Known about the structure:
Layout: E1 7-8, H1 12-25, H2 30-34, E2 50-54, H3 58-63, H4 78-84, E3 89-94, H5 113-125, E4 129-134, H6 157-177, E5 182-187, H7 204-218, E6 223-228, H8 234-246, E7 253-257, H9 266-280, E8 283-289, H10 322-337, E9 343-349, H11 364-381, H12 395-400, H13 424-427, E10 433-434, H14 446-456, H15 464-470, H16 480-490
Parallel strand pairs: 2-3, 2-9, 3-4, 4-5, 5-6, 6-7, 7-8, 8-9
Antiparallel strand pairs: 1-10
Calcium ion is lined by residues 297, 299, 301, 303, 403-405, 407.
Amino acid sequence: xxxxxxxxxRTAILMALILLxxxxxxxxxxxxxxxxxxxxxxAFHHDGFIRGMDVSSVVSLENSGVKFYDESGNETDLFRxxxxxxxxxxxxxxxNDPYDSAGNGYGGGNNDVATAAQIGSRAAKYGMxxxxxxxxxxxxxxxxxxxxxxxxxDLGLDARLQAVKTYTAASLETIRQAGAMIGMVQIGNETxxxxxxxxxxxxxxxxxxxxxxxxxxxxxxxxxxxxFTDPQNTATIKWxxxxxxxxxxxxxxxxxxxxxxxxxxxxxxxxxxxxxxxTYGKYVMVxxxxxxxxxxxxxxxxNTVSDRNNNTGNDLLWEFSEQGQADEVxxxxxxxxxxxxxxxxxxxxxxxxxxxxxxTSLTGDAYTQRVNENRALWEQYGSGWAASFGGGYDPDxxxxxxxxxxDNQAFFDPSGKVLSSLWVFDKVHxxxxxxxxxxxxxxxxxxxxxxxxxxxxGIKYFSPTAKRxxxxxxxxxxxxxxxxxxxxxxxxxxxx
Length: 496
Ligand code: CA
């Protein structure tokens, strides 16, 4: 991609200049200038470093009336906002059957295969690939619980392995048919203690293998990821890589969750990921991370991180602000990149799980009323972490059903407006493009002028990098002048 004088990289000086000019021309308030985040780019080992986001709850949120807005306050598709800010991959969880016998959703987004297909198809419109995160359960699978799907509860091991295979293949087919670009599949979620109702450590690898075989048969180009957590238990998580190897599990990506409140230092994170990369040649990634931009709650359901919970005592390195949230994302990406060539990327967990009704400024009866309205939406549309209907399957859902525990870790404020911190996904990488190469295929050709024209009539999406590559006239916008300048350049006006 590096060719001659047209190769460009953003520099801190250029960004400062743009900021200066923008501030001078636009009637920008001091407030918006203060909210501009500063992020030092990372020298990634490869262009495709995953800067991903899990937004599994988005459909249930939209059904509850939530809307998302860009910086100018324009209502915009969430997936477009994410892509416009540099997110390049979407992760979605999939539950086999998150409904009770009467058809009521368990909540947590009611993320069945059809929902995943819809999310994957919307991501593809903006050029984002999909990581399909199979929980092989009907509701949340995590280190503490790996419950069997209802439909599999009476199956013996062999029949269960066959069910995993059949279900995996059929689900991927449905998701692909919807138009999703499936780049990676996760075979289980935080599978520290089991998977698909199987908890014997001699049998767990057989479930991984069944899933893996189904994915390989479906499409040999899809990356297969395993997912564990508790990287702070260094010896244990390294042992998991040995265990997978000893059991001949065929996979590509060794991944862990990394929540800085609980999961040890960044140096340790790099160390445990390097072990899987160096010893077994696996790609490595962080499948989930997040960080709070505020300690305030905005939906009436207690947050995982608040001024009484998880906010101190763990040597947290970042302030609870938009800048701090962005800094955490950069730091985790840097820790993965420090592994070397095998450092594949980072996914942020549920960066859009905002409130369905803002409680922030309410008190007394008004607060109570709003929370009750929110609860009705969580129950009806599944937009909280759990609806009461999940109680028959997961007792925790029955006891503690409610809303979002991570609304203060989203990249959107309670009204749905994007926060400046989302820019970390774009700013963290140095652009590598040729001026005029609007379609980013490595050369400037007439196709680039066509791409600009297609972009201008709204039938082609341009990523932030594509917009910068297309901006021949250096005026921070893409218009017909840029298409003309590409044509003039090709016609021999090389000084353009
Ligand atoms: Ca909350």
